[in-house]
């Protein structure tokens, strides 16, 4: 009886072993590896190959290899760009004076051969728009006068006064000085022609792989659009107003170097007088391709090297001042060209431009590449991280669609995480699920 009363007074003990430290993350059935893999799950594509593979260049000259790759190519609407480029090329060759037909055929055949060899295709396929632009600009002088549109003389000065209340170009060019001439000559007469090469080399070495092909295509198409607008909507620049007032212009009138003539006189050499006087498009004031190119370079370089963004902004402002000081463009021309560049860049960044990784100092340090603008899914935005709304992107690994300067393997490109995962999606999901179940089981058992 005493033992029974003692038993009732004794407080029962439940022998359960609780973990010494309980982390809330251990209760999440999704492992940490899985969560880190879903952080950027909506990036369009990702390459998780070895660094040497990603940064490598094609060395093969076998046309058969390119033909096999072309047969495997998955055609898309984006491939229409090559049809347009081919049409531009043939049209330009046809417009040029009908001399040396064998030379034209040999030039076209040689470029096709460059596109068929992998070692040369990786450079000449993404730069094809640039070569078409140069041919387009050169051949525009042979367009018959009877099919050319009317030259607009009063439109740009009127827009200048309506938008800004004054002719900014005439105000800035009213007072000249040899030092100001040199200061304007550096970005307009030197930087405009050197920047494409300088920026391309910097992007190739220090930016993420596949950045340079996107820049080359963007730069080429920008100039093709600019030349087309200048031919369809020809307008006179400020130097014409200073020389002829608002008198009607006609084709056959020579161009003019404007303020660059003072630079030639200063150095005693003919660097710009002859070239600008015989320019194929003397009435291509709108849009300003000097401003458009500078803005495109600044946007791409700011994307690759954001630390130097203030310098790129300063350079754009410097060139804007130089174009108006030298009397080559109105302010409205600068705005128009800059808007076109901004549109091209933001489209390229959203769909094709690789993300830069701050901890990488050169292309050879990249072990994976993410492409396209990242968009958070609704479940990630609200912190669930389940990836319920994820969509798989198309496999764009075909070198004919990318035009990359790097070697790519189609099996290594997929939509996915922000860190390289060598396993496939199904296997990785099963591993994450098993890891989460194991962690949860350990907590309950312990």
From TrEMBL:
Membrane topology per record: Multi-pass membrane protein
Phosphatidic acid phosphatase type 2/haloperoxidase domain: residues covered: 212-349
Gene Ontology biological-process annotations: mannosyl diphosphorylinositol ceramide metabolic process; sphingolipid biosynthetic process
Regions crossing the membrane: 77-96, 185-207, 219-240, 281-300, 312-328, 334-353
Cellular component, GO annotation: inositol phosphoceramide synthase complex; membrane
Residue spans of biased composition, Basic residues class: 35-47
Biased composition (Polar residues): 412-422
Keyword Membrane recorded: yes
Main subcellular location of this protein, as a coarse class: membrane
Subcellular location as annotated: Membrane
Name the record gives this protein: Phosphatidic acid phosphatase type 2/haloperoxidase domain-containing protein
Organism of provenance: Pseudomassariella vexata
Source lineage: Eukaryota, Fungi, Dikarya, Ascomycota, Pezizomycotina
């Amino acid at each position: 009886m005493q033992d029974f009363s003692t038993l009732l007074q004794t407080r029962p003990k439940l022998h359960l072993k609780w973990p010494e430290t309980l982390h809330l993350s251990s209760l999440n059935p999704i492992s940490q590896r899985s969560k880190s893999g879903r952080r950027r799950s909506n990036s369009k594509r990702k390459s998780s190959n070895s660094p040497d593979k990603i940064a490598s260049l094609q060395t093969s000259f076998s046309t058969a290899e390119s033909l096999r790759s072309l047969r495997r190519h998955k055609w898309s609407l984006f491939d229409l760009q090559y049809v347009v480029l081919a049409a531009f090329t043939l049209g330009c060759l046809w417009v040029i004076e009908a001399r040396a037909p064998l030379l034209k055929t040999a030039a076209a055949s040689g470029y096709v051969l460059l596109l068929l060899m992998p070692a040369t295709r990786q450079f000449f396929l993404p730069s094809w728009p640039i070569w078409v632009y140069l041919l387009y600009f050169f051949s525009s002088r042979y367009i018959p006068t009877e099919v050319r549109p009317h030259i607009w003389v009063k439109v740009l000065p009127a827009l200048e006064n309506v938008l800004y209340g004054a002719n900014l170009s005439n105000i800035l060019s009213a007072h000249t000085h040899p030092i100001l001439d040199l200061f304007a000559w550096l970005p307009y007469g030197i930087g405009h022609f050197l920047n494409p090469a300088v920026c391309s080399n910097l992007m190739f070495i220090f930016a993420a792989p596949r950045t340079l092909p996107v820049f080359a295509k963007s730069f080429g198409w920008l100039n093709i659009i600019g030349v087309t607008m200048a031919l369809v909507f020809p307008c006179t620049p400020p130097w014409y107003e200073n020389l002829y007032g608002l008198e009607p212009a006609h084709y056959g009138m020579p161009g003019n170097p404007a303020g660059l003539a003072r630079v030639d006189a200063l150095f005693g050499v003919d660097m710009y007088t002859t070239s600008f006087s015989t320019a194929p498009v003397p009435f291509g004031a709108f849009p300003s391709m000097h401003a458009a190119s500078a803005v495109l370079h600044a946007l791409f370089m700011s994307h690759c090297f954001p630390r130097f963004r203030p310098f790129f902004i300063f350079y754009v402002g410097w060139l804007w001042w130089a174009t108006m000081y030298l009397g080559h463009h109105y302010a409205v021309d600068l705005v128009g060209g800059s808007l076109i560049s901004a549109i091209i860049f933001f489209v390229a960044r959203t769909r094709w431009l690789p993300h830069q990784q701050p901890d990488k100092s050169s292309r050879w340090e990249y072990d994976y590449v993410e492409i396209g603008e990242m968009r958070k899914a609704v479940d990630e935005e609200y912190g669930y991280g389940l990836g319920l709304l994820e969509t798989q992107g198309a496999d764009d690994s075909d070198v004919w669609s990318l035009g990359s300067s790097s070697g790519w393997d189609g099996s290594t490109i997929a939509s996915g995480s922000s860190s390289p995962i060598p396993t496939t999606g199904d296997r990785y999901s099963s591993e994450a699920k098993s890891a989460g179940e194991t962690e949860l089981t350990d907590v309950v058992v312990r």
